[in-house]
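Q: Sequence in, structure out?
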Amino acid sequence: MSLFQVLRNVFRNLDEDHFKILRIIEKNLKKYEIIPIEIIEKQSGLDKSSVEKLLKKLNYYKLVWCPRGKRKGYVLNYNGLDLLALRNLVRRNIIESIGKPLGVGKEADVYEGLSPSGQELAIKFFRIGRTSFRGYEKKRPTLHQYHSYLYASIVAAEKEFEALKILNPKGVSTPEPIARDRHIVVTKIFRGVEIPSAQYIGNPLKILTRILDNIVRAYEVGIVHSDLSVYNILVTPSEDIILIDWPQWIWRDHPMANIYLKRDLTNLIRYFKRRWNIENIPRKYQDFIDEVLKEIFNTA
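A: Exactly. Output:
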């Protein structure tokens, strides 16, 4: 049974008051690490007995949980956040169904899906803070300020969707954005595999120049990826590329922009040199790299 089917089955057993409680807990994610029952009661306008019954059922379906030893408060989990977001996306006629996983990463899962009109979709669920990525705050400085991983995931999705809306219309090779709700980003389907896993690359210099061309184009638009590596660049058998994972992007005038851009460029060029022995790149890209390094040196 797919994720979508599981949540749809749960949905059928909940009423509007259950969703009211979920939304109240969600609304307080930024303020509270554990939302006190008193706050839930006050904001819901329901009596204590009703709130306790609603929370008990939500807990049974694993949509919220009560931390051990903290009997007076509840926390929303990713199942609950998924349900809220997918409910909205279905109501907005964005998603009709969700299929198999396209990719499972450290901070996000991507599933294939369909719209009501039959359009193929890629549906990305941000999952910041899962067990395999507990040290995310060391690598995600723009997100670590939030005590709630769920809230950090919502912010990450918001930032990524913003980047895609800016870059894709300008011809930068990114997923084409369709919609966002909470921690879910919906785009048109995209195919390809991460560069280290692609066994069909016949012209690595062409791949590298296409990547550099997109980095330059994004920079001209005013955006630096700031976390780019061969693991978030997908390549197709026809050697087209697509740049993914944009929650860490920053504006070009950010004080650290050129430092991060240098890191992105250095990581890529070192990889292609190590794997395919590419020593020289076209002059126009070398000039761009030299200019970035020059700006870093002049502002140091």
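Residues 257-276 form the longest helix (20 residues).
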